[in-house]
């Protein structure tokens, strides 16, 4: 049917009711079809952590990851130098005249049994005869002579005579250093969640340089101990902030490889530390060699060199940082063909971004359960490592050399990282953690139960096996925690696990303070707790190839998979995919 030009257009019938009479309806004008440019943009998904990382670009991502790995080489100088600067060499009372011969030593010094070496007698290290008469003895009055054959020729023990009556200052320094690491992990880990990764990293780097210089110029043991405590806290903050930033810059397939490379960089730093120690022969030069290169990394504060973690920006309230990130993405959007970057169009408003709610955190039972299990495992794995290193000396009375005691844990740590790289992505985090903790407990039970029947070679083999498995457990605990803790508390969560590991490490200087008396009971307690940790690991979830959780609600979703049967999800074919996956 034809219509005249003056007649109104036909309107198709509609089930909707007509407007009420009080509201007049205006006629629909005839206009041309709107162009595609004037159509409103379709609704897009909010940006996720994975999309934020992809928006950096592959090249930028690799550069930032390399910048987080390189400082580990020099952090090892500050965090692993205690065995070198606190090594107590053989010594005896200073005798007048030139270098005394063995006959003069026998005539001037009483003979006594060594504290830790069985059936081993030698000249006393802290006593001398009064006026050359062998009827009475007295403490050393003219200082000590040191026979340095290993490590640094000049360390804090030889410079300040921290032997005999002053030896207690050495374990105190070691305890204070570990407590400093513990304090830095907790305090700066919380700061990384609240202030941002970049700001916390720059603050920690600045403090590490300042306290590193103050440690090198310390004139007295008391000042040295205080400065070492502060240096340990700042260095732990650098290590922790780099660790979580590195992980947040990686997609799931890269997390293990990048963490393994950072671990091997730390091992290389510990080996380089020994080489530098043999070259400089001074504890001040050794610590200075670790603090000086950190000044180069202060350049991370230059705008554009080391930006903030994109995952943390997604949760923060700093809209200026988010806008700058979006502008940088928009400027390069034309050069990208990946349509997934269109999801960055809609930025979350300040009111929709999640905040850390302490009541919600206290009621996150699944997060606390995972943290308790991993913290307990970290405590056991760090504490029992010292038992394996000193087991042969405690049981057989044959103390190994310093280089063996230093290189064995370092090489075991490197081998542990290689094992984790080869197995964890195939067998899962939980399975390898369970296997390594089981090997740790079995090695302890064999050494404690059969030590009277094992040969020297067998004791060495099982000690190395236990040390290797405990190192793998400790390293995997930290990676596991960083993967299942949500971004909003990742710094604090990893800091708590590292702090509990520091509590386990406190047993080493405390045993040295007591000359290793009670080592058997000490080892038995840790072995029993290791078996309990094996059972608790079964309660952990699996984080292999899963995205990092962002909020507390995301972290609560990481639950233990079923043990007996596989879970089958009946998902419709046309279901909307999860943007996080």
TrEMBL record:
Biased composition (Basic and acidic residues) is annotated at 326-339
Q: Where is the Major facilitator superfamily (MFS) profile domain?
A: 131-545
The record, for Gene3D superfamilies, names: MFS general substrate transporter like domains (1.20.1250.20)
Q: Does the keyword Membrane apply?
A: yes
Q: Which parts of the sequence are annotated with region: Disordered? A: 1-44, 322-355
Keyword Transit peptide annotated: no
GO MF annotations for this entry?
A: transmembrane transporter activity
List the keywords (alphabetical): Membrane, Transmembrane, Transmembrane helix
- Pfam families in the cross-refs: Sugar_tr (PF00083)
Q: Which residues form the signal peptide?
A: none
GO CC terms, sorted? membrane
| Membrane-spanning parts | 63-80, 167-189, 201-220, 256-279, 285-306, 403-424, 431-451, 457-480, 487-507, 519-540
Membrane-topology annotation of the record: Multi-pass membrane protein
Entries under SUPFAM superfamilies matching the protein: MFS general substrate transporter
List, as start-end ranges, the regions of compositional bias called Pro residues.
1-32
Q: Where in the cell is it found?
A: Membrane
PANTHER family named among the record's database cross-references? SOLUTE CARRIER FAMILY 22 MEMBER (PTHR24064)
UniProt-recorded name of the protein = Major facilitator superfamily (MFS) profile domain-containing protein
Q: Which organism is it from?
A: Pleuronectes platessa
Taxonomic lineage: Eukaryota, Metazoa, Chordata, Craniata, Vertebrata
